[in-house]
Amino acid sequence: MSELTNLTDRLAHLRDRKPNSNGKKLSPKVVKKQQNRERSFATNYFGLFAYSLLAIALFAQVTLIICFDLY
User: How would DSSP label each residue in 1-70?
Assistant: First the structure.
């Protein structure tokens, strides 16, 4: 067995040895899939509000330009 150099390696080694609640070991694919899971960012409501105001303002300006140009 290779020498475990830090606490993270030791915890990972113990976690790999520990069976799950059914008494079965997790397959390597399941373990790898769980390790690659990333957290998603929270919804930025202020950014959504600001971009929606920008879109409304741009739409209103284009509409006014078209209307004043035609009449």
Answer: -PPP-SHHHHHHHHHHHS--TTS-PPPHHHHHHHHT--PPPPP-HHHHHHHHHHHHHHHHHHHHHHHHHH
What residues make up the domain containing 71? 41-71
pTM: 0.44
pLDDT in tens, 3-54: 667 888 888 888 887 666 555 565 666 666 666 677 788 889 999 999 999 9
32 and 54 together in one domain: no
